[in-house]
Amino acid sequence: MDEAIRALVGAATVKRGKVKLELPPIVENGNTVPLTVTVDSPMSETDYVTGIHIFNEKNPQPYVVAFDLGPRAGKAAVSTRMRLADSQQVVAIARLNDGSFWSDSADVIVTLAACAEG
Predict the structure, then answer these.
(1) 44 occurs within a structural domain
(2) Residue 112 — pLDDT band, cuts 50, 70, 90?
């Protein structure tokens, strides 16, 4: 996961704050885990979110999804579902139009891994 994040942000510092990642702390089945990411941004022509990126710690592909946004999006928020192979940390990173990166993370416990069902 760290390598995937570094590939996105390069040498930039990722700061905590502005981003809120919401997902259940415990899920019975890792096949469909809901998550929502919101970013504190006015989404104006001069101050807006350009992207929201989701990463996970233990899945085979750590870079889960990227959402492209712009000032006309109106609101810096996305919702989706993801598969989780095991209990792990999920990280959301937002890129703002000034080039800064902001993040939030959450740990989730999966009682039945997504890849365990036949």
Answers:
(1) yes
(2) confident
The confidence score (pLDDT) of residue 62 equals 95
CA-based diameter of the chain, in Å? 50
Sheet holding 33-39, edge to edge: 19-22, 33-39, 77-82
Residue 73 pLDDT exceeds 90: yes
Record the pTM: 0.91
Q: Is residue 22 part of a domain?
A: yes
Query: How many angstroms separate the Cα of 118 from the Cα of each of 33, 57, 69, 84?
Result: 18, 23, 37, 16
Phi, psi of 6 (to 5 degrees): -65, -35
Consecutive H or E run containing 15: strand 14-16
Owning domain of residue 25: 2-110
